[in-house]
């Protein structure tokens, strides 16, 4: 999912509701320097900035280990962020971008 979302984050932010749960640790500099180049297919040049942009979106904290009252309040905040409309053009663009990225990762250079 990340591979299909990353290329379009700056042009059209994803229609997702970022939720931060207990135990999640945001990637640090060491991740971008050591881990990302090993797991990202092809060149990771420029990808780190896009991924960081993705993680900079303000997330709602969802304390999955909290009381029912806290969970209800936080769940209402998550629901309030659900988009009321759906832009099919953006969705189609993401599907095409994802297919192109997969083709590049497979090394066939296809896509467009």
Note down, in words, how this protein is organized:
With 112 residues, the protein is mostly helical. Helix content is 50%, strand content 4%. It contains five helices and two strands, in the order αβααβαα. It has a two-stranded parallel ribbon with strand order 1-2. The two termini are 20 Å apart. The mean pLDDT is 74.
Distance between the termini: 20 Å
Largest sheet composition: 2 strands, parallel
**Beta-strand segment tally:** 2
- In DSSP terms (H or I, runs of 4 or more residues), the helix count works out at 5
User: Rg to the nearest angstrom?
Assistant: 17 Å
Give the H and E element order: HEHHEHH
Binned, the helix content reads: 40-55%
Low-confidence segments: none
Average pLDDT metric: 74
Structural class of the helices, strands and pairings? mainly alpha
Q: What coarse outline follows from CA principal-axis ratios?
A: flat
Strand content: under 5%
Order of neighbouring strands in the sheet with most strands:
1-2
Quickly describe the structure.
With 112 residues, this protein is mostly helical.
Describe the secondary-structure layout.
Elements: H1 2-5, E1 19-20, H2 29-39, H3 47-55, E2 60-61, H4 68-80, H5 88-106
Parallel strand pairs: 1-2
């Amino acid at each position: 999912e990340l591979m299909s979302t990353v290329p379009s984050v700056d042009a059209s932010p994803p229609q997702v509701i970022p939720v931060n749960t207990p135990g999640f640790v945001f990637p640090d500099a060491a991740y971008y320097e050591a881990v990302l180049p090993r797991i990202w297919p092809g060149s990771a040049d420029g990808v780190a900035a896009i991924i960081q942009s993705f993680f900079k979106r303000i997330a709602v904290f969802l304390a999955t280990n909290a009381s029912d009252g806290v969970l209800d309040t936080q769940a209402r905040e998550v629901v309030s962020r659900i988009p009321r409309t759906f832009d099919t053009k953006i969705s189609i663009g993401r599907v095409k971008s994802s297919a192109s990225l997969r083709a590049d990762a497979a090394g066939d250079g296809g896509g467009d």
